[in-house]
Amino acid sequence: MAKVRKGIEVSIAMADAVAQANVDVIGAYPITPQTHIVEHLSEIVANGELDAEFVPVDSEHSAMSVCCGSAAVGARTFTSTSSQGLALMAEIFYIAAAMRLPIVMALANRSLSGPLSIWNDHTDTMMVRDAGWIHIFVENGQESYDNIFTAFRIAEDAGVMLPVAVNFDGFILTHMIEPIEYEDNETIAKYLPPFKMKNTLHPDNPVSMGCFGMPEIYTEAQMQRENSIRSAYPTILKAWEEWGKLTGRYYHPVETYRVEDADYCIVTMGSYGETAMEVVDSLRQEGEKVGVVKIRLWRPFPVDEFCKVVLGKESLIVIDRAISFGGPGGPVASELRSALYKKEGAPVIVNTVAGLAGRDVSRNDFRNIILDGKARAQKGETEGFTLYGLRG
Amino acid sequence: MAKPMEQIKWQELEPGSVVVEVGNALEYETGTWRSEKPVVNKDQCIKCGVCWLFCPDGCIVKAPEGHFEANLLYCKGCAICAKECPVGCITMVSEEE
């Protein structure tokens, strides 16, 4: 496939990226809104365009189990899911990270039941926040396509060996037709060489994986996991840097828009960043000194980079796409409050939960969230969170 | 195990806590869990091997005389052998006695 720019559905481009990454095994079960990715991949494999094993499993629990098995023998492994599917595979999802298996998942973010919903928010991914996977958030089709490759590069690095989830918003991205620049296969092959795991399942050199951990060793095993994801950070930066050199498209753990001279900022994850930038442009014309901070790398959380950007600002308006029921705020805002606590020059945080289960958040809604957030910050109303657009 | 489990530092674990030594379960002596031990009446034993088949820990071995006995370094005292023995020649005896 030569380098070419095409108008294409983001899910199809993601599937094409997986094929270009030359994966060996795909274990997946279809679920809205991820369906087009696995449908297209099964076509690609059935047509003989990709020499891979497509395992059409009976459930997501089995999908992740297949992925663990194939990654354990050192095969390049991909899966994709959403919402209830992620919930069903949760048990094995944790194990994949504990076993340090370099699986890549396209996680089409969708709300969790109930009430049952198929639309987009971040409740599914927040459920597995602490599973030990690396989590990347993307905001458009090009970023979705690109980060399939960077995800494999990061996951399979000998010093990392961790699964990576590429979070992209269900429907807002999965079903959108966008102009996407495809890289040629030579570029991809250069960027993604074959990888080698230290220990694999092989009869010539038997090892035991996924063993029982007694109280005497469990703590040490957890510390090894914690260290592995923290020390993955420089590799993530390098993977993005090298991708940038090859393609001209650079990625960073925290990305910013018009923040240098901003008094206050709106903080987003995922596709909302694009709308936020447009609204910030129009608010700037009215004299509002506002910027956008976008969190691309959710785990490992880039505390230092985040602080570098926001310390000295007056306030942050943090948009959460999920509720932590009974908690002190939305999952993102709670984390940012904790990261900034007692830091000199820390901005106050106002938290708005918006766009649950695909409820549209228009440019005008963003404008309201930003201006209302600014007012709340000035009044000192910085506890808890507000549900934007709630009736009653 | 190169080192006793309680002495291993986190830096010394293989990625994913993979166990690279084969058969190291032998080094974990589960016999300390036991509160009752199986005692075989050798005269009654018909040497059928049912206890050997059913033992979930594989800790029952055939003695030179042909009857079967539990290796008490590993026997957890679960009493499945006593329950399954067709002639009832295995008695569970409290470790306190």
How would you summarize this macromolecular structure in one to three sentences?
The complex is a heterodimer of chains A (392) and B (97). Chain A has helices at 10-20, 35-46, 60-72, 83-88, 90-98, 123-127, 141-155, 185-191, 215-230, 233-247, 272-285, 303-310, 331-340, 363-379; strands at residues 4-9, 25-28, 53-56, 77-81, 104-109, 134-137, 164-169, 177-182, 254-257, 264-268, 290-295, 297-299, 315-320, 348-353, 386-387. Chain A is an alpha/beta fold and 392 residues long.
Topology (elements, then pairings):
The complex is a heterodimer of chains A (392) and B (97).
Chain A: E1 4-9, H1 10-20, E2 25-28, H2 35-46, E3 53-56, H3 60-72, E4 77-81, H4 83-88, H5 90-98, E5 104-109, H6 123-127, E6 134-137, H7 141-155, E7 164-169, E8 177-182, H8 185-191, H9 215-230, H10 233-247, E9 254-257, E10 264-268, H11 272-285, E11 290-295, E12 297-299, H12 303-310, E13 315-320, H13 331-340, E14 348-353, H14 363-379, E15 386-387
Helix pairs in contact in A: 1-2, 1-7, 3-5, 7-10, 11-14
Chain B: E1 36-40, H1 50-54, E2 60-62, E3 68-70, H2 80-84, E4 90-94
Antiparallel strand pairs in B: 1-4, 2-3
Description:
- The complex is a heterodimer of chains A (392) and B (97).
- Chain A is α/β, with parallel strands linked by helices and 392 residues long.
- In chain A, helix 14 (363-379) links the parallel strand 14 and strand 15.
- In chain A, the strands form 3 sheets. A 7-stranded mixed sheet of chain A has the order 3-2-4-5-7-6-12, with helices on both faces.
- The longest helix of chain A has 17 residues, at 363-379.
- Chain A has 2 domains: 4-247, 3-Layer(aba) Sandwich (Rossmann fold), CATH 3.40.50.970; 254-387, Rossmann fold (3-Layer(aba) Sandwich).
- In chain A, helix 11 packs across helix 14.
- Chain A has helices spanning 10-20, 35-46, 60-72, 83-88, 90-98, 123-127, 141-155, 185-191, 215-230, 233-247, 272-285, 303-310, 331-340, 363-379; strands spanning 4-9, 25-28, 53-56, 77-81, 104-109, 134-137, 164-169, 177-182, 254-257, 264-268, 290-295, 297-299, 315-320, 348-353, 386-387.
- Helices cover 10% and strands 16% of the residues of chain B.
- Chain B has 97 residues and is α+β, with helices and mostly antiparallel strands.
- Chain B has a two-stranded antiparallel ribbon with strand order 1-4. In chain B, strands 2-3 form a two-stranded antiparallel sheet.
- Chain B is built from 2 helices and 4 strands; from the N terminus they run βαββαβ.
- Chains A and B meet through helix 9 of A and loops of B.
